[in-house]
Input
Amino acid sequence: MPKSGLTPEQKKWTDQVLKHLNLKNVDEVQLDETHSDNTEHDKRPNEVNPGQPGARRARVLVSKDSTAAHQEQAARAATEFKAEITQLSNRYQALATNAQKLDAQARKQLVTKEHIDLFKVQIEKISNTFKQFNKNFSGQQRPDAGTISVLKTLLDKVQYHITEGKKVLQQGCEHADAMIAKEMPAVEAYQNTVEDTFKHRDELTQWGVDTTDFDKAHRIANLPLLRMQKAISDHSYQGLKFMLGKIAGKKEAFVKAYDDAKEQIEKNKEEAQQQLDKTLADATSLNKRAPELEHSPEALTQFTAAFEKVATSTPKGQQALSTGDYQGAAAILHDNEGALFQMQQLWFSNATTADGEADQPIEKGKPIPTRKKIENLRRALEQAYERLPFIKASLPNAHQYEAECKSLKTLLTSAQSDLISGRIEDAEEKVLPLRKIRFQLYSLTHKAKEQVQWVEKQLTQLKDDASSWLDRRKDLKLISQSDENARQSFDAYEKEAENVRNHFDSAAGHIESGKAIQAQKSVDEGMTSLKRLISHASDIELD
Output
């Protein structure tokens, strides 16, 4: 007997395949018609195509010759059978998915009863054919050639009905598009209003208008528009009609939000004009008292330079407002207020008439003088600006703190002008609002400190979590010495351990510097790196 040429492993595998397929000494596979009466075969019923001859079933002819040959033949037959079943299964899944998608599309797109009924016929046929497929396939561990032929024919039948369903769907889409076209004037009118109104947003931001309400109204008005556009692209007349019923009032609300915001433009313009005029008036009034600084030439020079800056910049700010350049006017106003504030500080520090009162002790039981209150608030402003770098490094909403600082400085500048001009009552009225702003600054500072403390707690916890995994290095190294895969995982572990330590050191340094935002970033990166470290360590232990 000739040798098979198979390795022991191949022979063992082939025997297992033969056992599974219930085959022995297989030499060839032939169809039944070569060993059966054709007349008898033709009498077999065809479940798929009634009236046609029944499917021919395959059978295996057994021979006791040539072990190597029958093993090779069995292996090839098993491979081909597996490929055929896999192909059949894949096609079944693909057709089932296509049928589901087709049905979902039809639910959106079909409008008329005629199209819906025609489509239902195809869907029912698809469903029934799948049921036939499952009935023929279920319970058979190894379908024979005849059954496989039946199954293929059933899937061909499913494909046919899917194609017919697509034809119905195409007709339905064309009808739906025609109905959608009739609704397009309403859609376009809504779209034009929403889009044209939104174009004014840049204008609002340029004039320093808070667009929170405007943006919210736009989101509410724009969502139905997006859904209508989706319905149109899906050929879904029903979806479009539904959304058209939901847009009532949304367009009008958005237009009103814009009108309200537009009113703020005029208010901001008028307020900026008034602030420019007032800053110039206060600076001019204070400049008249320049002789009180003559005993301090250096202070007088700075005082005069600050005034000249206000005097020359104010016309430029007014010109910017008249041309619609609010941002340019606002920048000039900010610089002018800073120059006026500098003039006031120089006057309080050096003017002869300003001496004496500030240093006088306050008698117990008597109210604190307005000037002393203003002085305390001025000191609070200086401290607030000193803390600004810390706040920016610790709070994501640091812009709120910076805005409060500017508000405090603007109002304080006005209060100091009142105080210098002798309008004590006017200055006193500004003290309470100034203290409220100072309280907001204190509150934000407290939040920034809490943020640093919170990140520090996270780092401490993360270090505790990491310590047990970092301490396993010696054991993991010992395990890795006996396996190549484990050695590769250990190298990755070593690298990641270094990354973990670097992230921890970076976070600790940022915490020490009071930079909570950067510290949080390092902690998050350290957490991600630790997860990779644990994964590498687990791989080593599993190997």
